[in-house]
Amino acid sequence: MEYNELLEKAKQASESAYAPYSKFKVGACVLTENNKIYTGCNFENSSFGLTICAERNAIGSAIADGERKLTAVAIYSPNEKHCYPCGACRQVMTEFASENLDIITEGDDGLEITKFSEIFPKGFIL
Ligand code: THU
Fold first, then answer.
1. Annotated catalytic residue: which of 5, 8, 15, 55?
2. pLDDT higher than 80, residue 115
3. Is the pTM of this model over 0.90?
4. How many CA atoms lie within 13 A of 33 on its CB side?
């Protein structure tokens, strides 16, 4: 799976976002070590703290399908260039990250690949 295809799927997923409060739509697409892909969007709640981010939604689908290792996560928001994952999602990724996990984002300069270990080193592991 090419990274631009992952990003395309993240874009499609962002269209399903339920973000009536922030109006900030996000889509994510994760690639696993078994070459499977899963998408997710953010979905908010009247009780704001219960909001689920697109990344955790996509990761949840991967886990529910038996996948355990992520090799790439593409994230897209029509509201912001280079929509990097929030801290909570970074910690969740730490649990399932392969050694070389790539984070894929898009900006005016096109697709960007960032090593997860660079943006979230030394995450908490029991
Ligand atoms: N959001 C995500 O889905 N992923 C992120 O990494 C950052 C934030 C969502 C949560 C909320 O619905 C909206 O963006 C504004 O914070």
1. 55
2. yes
3. yes
4. 12
Residue 39 corresponds to which amino acid?
T
Whole-number Å distance between alpha carbons of 19 and 35 = 30
Give the domain 3-119 fold: Cytidine Deaminase; domain 2 (3.40.140)
Give me the residue spans of the domains in the chain. 3-119
Q: Residue 85 CA: which ligand 1 atom is closest?
A: 6
Please state, in angstroms and rounded to a whole number, the distance separating the CA atoms of residues 119 and 67: 23
Q: Would the CB of 27 count as within 6 Å of ligand 1?
A: no
Q: pLDDT per residue over 9-43, tens digit each? A: 999 999 999 999 999 999 999 999 999 999 999 99
Handedness of CA 21, 95, 38, 107 (dihedral sign): positive
Question: Is there a catalytic annotation at residue 55?
Answer: yes
Ligand 1 atom with least separation from CA of 53: 3
